[in-house]
Design brief:
This protein has about 425 residues and is α+β, with helices and mostly antiparallel strands. The chain folds into 2 domains: about 220 residues, Up-down Bundle (Rhopdopsin 7-helix transmembrane proteins); about 160 residues, Alpha-Beta Plaits. It contains 12 helices and 5 strands. A 5-stranded mixed sheet has the order 2-3-1-4-5, sandwiched between helices. Helix 3 runs antiparallel to helix 4 and helix 4 packs antiparallel against helix 5.
C-alpha cells in the first residue's frame, strides 16, 4: 500500500470513530439534533474514503469518481446544517440542496476537461471551500465569541483556504495523476490526505467538545431550574444572586430583594386539586417574568414561595415591582379555576445594605413578608415598616366576586 493509501486508511478509521462518537452523543441526548448531523457528516466521509479506495480497481472510474465527490460534498453540507442548528440559524434548505445538485452536475461535466486542468480541479474543490466558509460565517454571525467557537470558525476558514489551495498543491507536487485510478499513488494524494486528516481531527474534536459542553450546560441548567415554574430553584438562585449583588456593588448601584408567597395556597389545592395549584404557580411565575426587568434573578424558593433579586433597583423601584406583580396576578385568569376566583399574593421588600450577606438579606425579606401576612395578606410590606404602614390592598382585591372561594382568616407563614 502506498503512503497515501496508509493516510487514507487512517482517515477512514478516524471518520469511523467520530461517526460512533457523535452517534453516541445523539442517542444519549435525543433532543440534540446537532449530533445527528455531525454523525451523518462523518458517515458521508466514510463513504467518500471507500470510493477513493475503490478507484484504482475501476476500468471506467467515472461513476465512482462522481459518487466520491457527492459523498464528500454531502459530508461538508451535513456539517454546515449541524453548525446552523448549533448556532440557532435558519437552514436554507432549498438553496443548500439546489447548490449541491448543481455542484454535482458541474463536477460531472468538468470531468471532460482532463485531470491536469486547473479549471477542473477548482470545480472539484470550490464547493467544499464555499460550504466551509459558510460554516465559519454562521459561527461568526451568531455573536458567540467563546474560545471554542472562535477556534472552530478559524478552523473552518483555514479548511476553506486549504481546499482552494489544492489545485496549486497539485501543480507543485506533480499533479493529481494521469487518471483517477492513479491518484492514490501520487505525492499530491499524500499531502492532500495528510492535511485533510489534520483538519478532520481538529474540527471533529472541536465539534465534539462543543456538544459535550452544551450537554453539561443543559444538565447544570436542569439541576438549577424548577421544572414547574421554569424559574431558578434555590440552588440556581444562590449561584446567580451573589454574583448579581457583587456586580451592583462594584458599579455603585443598589440592589433589592422581593420575597413573595401565594395567599391561601393550601386552600387552592384542597378545593380545586393539585393540578389547579400547579397552574396557579405557573401563572404567578409568568407574571414575575413579564413584570421583572431583564437582569432580575427570579426563583421559586419552594412550595408557593418565590424570590426576586433586582440588581440596579432601589427600595422604591422594588416596591413598585412588587405592587405591579400583585396587581397583575390579582386580575389574571387561571385555567381550571372557577370564574371569579380571586388569587392573591403577599410580598416583602428589602434593599441590600453594604456588606450584607445574601442570607441576611433573605431573612429581612422574609420578615417583611411575614408582616404582610400578619396584616391581612394581599399586600406589600417593606423591611422596617410596621404592619400598619404596609402598602394598601389592591383595588381589585377589596371585594370577593360572586362564586369565589371564601377568604379564610389568619394563617401561618406557609399560607
Amino acid at each position: 500500500m502506498s503512503s497515501a493509501g496508509v493516510i487514507l486508511a487512517i482517515n477512514l478509521s478516524v471518520a469511523a470513530l467520530f461517526t460512533a462518537a457523535f452517534a453516541i452523543v445523539a442517542v444519549s441526548n435525543t433532543s440534540d439534533r446537532v449530533a445527528r448531523w455531525f454523525a451523518l457528516a462523518y458517515g458521508f466521509g466514510i463513504a467518500y474514503l471507500l470510493f477513493e479506495f475503490a478507484l484504482p480497481s475501476q476500468a471506467d472510474p467515472r461513476l465512482v469518481y462522481d459518487c466520491g465527490f457527492a459523498a464528500f460534498l454531502g459530508a461538508v453540507a451535513a456539517v454546515t446544517v449541524g453548525i446552523a442548528r448549533r448556532y440557532g440559524r435558519e437552514v436554507p434548505w432549498g438553496l443548500l440542496l439546489g447548490a449541491c445538485a448543481a455542484f454535482v452536475l458541474l463536477n460531472h461535466l468538468a470531468y471532460e476537461l482532463g485531470r491536469p486542468s486547473l479549471l477542473r480541479m477548482l470545480t472539484y474543490q470550490a464547493p467544499y471551500a464555499l460550504l466551509q466558509a459558510v460554516g465559519a460565517a454562521i459561527i461568526l454571525r451568531s455573536g458567540r465569541r467563546q474560545a471554542m467557537d472562535v477556534a472552530l470558525a478559524s478552523l473552518f476558514a483555514l479548511s476553506a483556504v486549504h481546499f482552494l489551495a489544492k489545485p496549486l498543491l497539485a501543480v507543485v507536487t506533480g499533479g493529481p495523476g494521469v487518471a483517477p485510478q492513479a491518484y492514490i499513488d501520487t505525492d499530491y494524494a499524500l499531502y492532500s490526505q495528510s492535511f485533510g486528516a489534520v483538519l478532520q481531527v481538529g474540527s471533529g474534536l472541536l465539534m465534539l467538545m462543543l456538544l459535550v459542553r452544551d450537554m453539561l450546560v443543559e444538565i447544570t441548567m436542569r439541576s438549577e431550574t424548577d421544572a414547574l415554574s421554569g424559574l431558578y430553584n434555590r440552588r440556581g438562585f444562590d449561584a446567580r444572586a451573589e454574583a448579581a449583588i457583587q456586580g451592583s456593588r462594584k458599579g455603585g448601584m443598589p440592589a433589592a430583594l422581593v420575597a413573595a408567597d401565594l395567599d391561601n395556597f393550601k386552600r387552592i389545592n384542597d378545593s380545586f386539586g393539585h393540578d389547579a395549584g400547579d397552574r396557579v404557580i405557573e401563572a404567578f411565575a409568568s407574571v414575575l417574568r413579564a413584570v421583572g426587568p431583564e437582569r432580575a434573578v427570579l426563583s421559586r424558593w419552594g412550595g408557593e414561595e418565590f424570590v426576586a433579586l433586582l440588581p440596579g433597583t432601589n427600595l422604591a423601584g422594588a416596591r413598585l415591582f412588587a405592587e405591579s406583580v400583585r396587581g397583575a396576578f390579582a386580575t389574571l385568569p387561571v385555567e381550571g379555576m372557577p370564574d371569579g376566583t380571586r388569587l392573591t399574593a403577599s410580598f416583602g421588600v428589602v434593599q441590600h445594605r453594604p456588606d450584607e450577606q445574601l442570607s441576611d438579606l433573605r431573612r429581612r425579606a422574609d420578615a417583611a413578608l411575614y408582616d404582610a401576612k400578619q396584616a391581612g395578606r394581599n399586600r406589600v410590606c417593606v423591611s422596617g415598616q410596621s404592619a400598619g404602614d404596609g402598602m394598601p390592598e389592591h383595588p381589585l382585591a377589596t371585594a370577593t366576586p360572586a362564586g369565589s372561594a371564601p377568604r379564610p382568616g389568619r394563617r401561618d407563614r406557609a399560607g
